[in-house]
Specification:
- The protein is an alpha+beta fold and about 250 residues long.
- The protein has a domain of about 150 residues: FAS1 domain (Roll).
- The chain contains nine helices and six strands, in the order ααααβααβββββααα.
- A six-stranded mixed β-sheet has the order 2-1-6-5-4-3.
- α1 runs antiparallel to α9.
- The protein is globular and about 35 Å long.
- It binds 2-acetamido-2-deoxy-beta-D-glucopyranose (4 copies).
- The site of one 2-acetamido-2-deoxy-beta-D-glucopyranose has 7 residues, from loops.
């Protein structure tokens, strides 16, 4: 009984510290958004020099920064790599008028910040800053397969291959092809029609009930799933510590 205050007090303090830390992590709010600089973000990431040059020459880069500083909904930017631009047929960019260059770049910008997991539920066609999503000029469609997100324009169909930057106000993604809009680059012969997003959605929703739970399931793990299972582990750890404390105190 003599040891009771010491060991129990220390153990309880540890438990309280653990619980406090877990709660604090659960409640952490996103950092407040300050003015952001799309050019600086892309420069830091490397391999986007052509896109940066176009953002400068069209002044769309400044407009994006202005919008970020004033927008409630944020922005999403699809940034093609230097390779994506050099894979275009020679002279493609030079053949465009200034207005077409602006439209091409605006086609890579959405007026909301969309996270990778939110792409699963967007409705097609998605409106870009180039406008005219519905009348055939600038449709941009999102299709998802598991965690893979594809962007299709009717001219190209390419996956989002990397997240360059993402917070609740700005999402910047790498694409390995320039997103060529129908209005400027015409419609190629209609190839095999891609599965409509709605059908893919249904497939995905059916899966979890058909597939037994376990490490072998191929159903996508979203960010929030990952976060909640981490928290579960923590809480289980907390319960373990609590049990240890109780049994320790009991034994004295
Ligand atoms: C944004 O970053 C670029 C590159 O670091 C810099 O040249 C430009 O001046 C910055 N713009 C603003 C408004 O700070
Ligand atoms: C951001 O917006 C605030 C308030 O509207 C303004 O005072 C500030 O100059 C803006 N900053 C930039 C870099 O545009
Ligand atoms: C985009 O999706 C809409 C709605 O599902 C569809 O009507 C349209 O044909 C699609 N366009 C492209 C280019 O995939
Ligand atoms: C996504 O794009 C890749 C590369 O073009 C293609 O192989 C794949 O089939 C596409 N997936 C969907 C769902 O469109």
């Amino acid at each position: 009984m003599k040891h009771f205050p010491n060991s129990c007090t220390i153990s309880f303090l540890l438990l309280v510290a653990f619980a406090y830390q877990t709660l604090a992590q659960t409640a952490t709010a996103p950092a407040p958004a300050g003015p952001k600089n799309i050019t600086a973000i892309l420069e830091k990431a490397g391999q986007y020099t052509t896109f940066i040059r176009l953002l400068r020459s069209t002044q769309l880069g400044d407009q994006i920064d202005n919008q970020l500083n004033n927008s409630n909904t944020g922005l999403t930017v699809f940034s093609p790599t230097d390779n994506a631009f050099s894979n275009l047929p020679p002279g493609t960019l030079n053949s465009l008028s200034d207005q077409q260059k602006v439209s091409l770049l605006q086609f890579h910008v959405l007026s909301t910040a969309i996270s990778m997991s939110q792409f699963q539920t967007v409705s097609n066609p998605v409106r870009t800053q180039a406008g005219d999503a519905n009348d055939g000029g600038f449709p941009l469609n999102v299709t998802t397969t598991g965690n893979q997100v594809n962007i299709s324009t009717g001219v190209v169909n390419t996956p989002i291959s990397n997240t360059i930057f993402s917070d609740n106000q700005l999402a910047v993604y790498q694409v390995d092809q320039v997103l060529l809009p129908m209005k400027i680059f015409g419609s190629p012969a209609p190839a095999a029609a891609p599965a409509p997003a709605a059908e893919l959605e249904k497939e995905k929703k059916k899966k979890p009930s058909n597939v037994p739970e376990g490490p072998s399931t191929s159903s996508p793990v979203t960010d929030s799933d990952a976060t909640s299972s981490t928290l579960n582990l923590k809480w289980r750890g907390g319960i373990g510590i609590a049990a240890a404390v109780i049994s320790l105190c009991w034994s004295f």
